[in-house]
């Protein structure tokens, strides 16, 4: 996180308010894409390509790997996303 800003809240908000019709979540991406595709009238493939699936050596969820201090830094940087998307701290 030291190398740059990773929070993306400003990309889809104006004056702190979301200005997009949909926010797709990584953990439900395929279902979200199908829903949006159905609304817009286009099909979504039955399977999505998996990219960068080998970049992590430890497959456990981040909350099991990161220290409390690391989690605190991520929460501080991305607090607005956590709140908007209903993620647990």
Can you tell me about this structure?
With 89 residues, the protein is mainly α. It has a domain at 57-89. Helices cover 38% and strands 4% of the residues. It has three helices and two strands, in the order ββααα. It has helices at 29-40, 62-65, 68-85; strands at 13-14, 17-18. Strands 1-2 form a two-stranded antiparallel sheet. Strand 1 and strand 2 (17-18) form a beta hairpin. The longest helix is centred in the last third of the chain and has 18 residues, at 68-85. The model has no long low-confidence stretch (mean pLDDT 86).
Give a short synopsis of this structure.
The chain has helices at residues 29-40, 62-65, 68-85, and strands spanning 13-14, 17-18. With 89 residues, the protein is mainly alpha-helical.
What would the keywords be for this entry?
mainly alpha, flat, about 90 residues
Output the structural class. mainly alpha
C-alpha-based Rg, rounded:
16 Å
The profile of the biggest β sheet is: 2 strands, antiparallel
Number of strands: 2
Mean pLDDT: 86
Globally, the shape reads flat
Biggest sheet: strands side by side, in what order? 1-2
What pattern of helices and strands is seen along the backbone?
Answer: EEHHH
Alpha-carbon distance between the two ends: 17 Å
Proportion of beta-strand residues:
under 5%
List low-confidence stretches.
none
Helix percent band: 25-40%
Oligomer: single chain
Number of helical stretches of at least 4 residues: 3
């Amino acid at each position: 996180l030291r190398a740059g800003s990773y929070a993306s809240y400003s990309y889809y908000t104006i004056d702190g308010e979301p200005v997009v019709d949909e926010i797709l979540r990584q953990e439900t991406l395929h279902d979200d894409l199908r829903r949006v595709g159905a609304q817009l009238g286009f099909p979504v493939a039955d399977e999505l390509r998996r990219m960068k699936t080998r970049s992590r050596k430890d497959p456990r969820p981040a909350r099991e790997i990161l220290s409390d201090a690391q989690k605190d830094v991520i929460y501080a940087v991305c607090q607005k996303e956590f709140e908007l998307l209903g993620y647990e701290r």
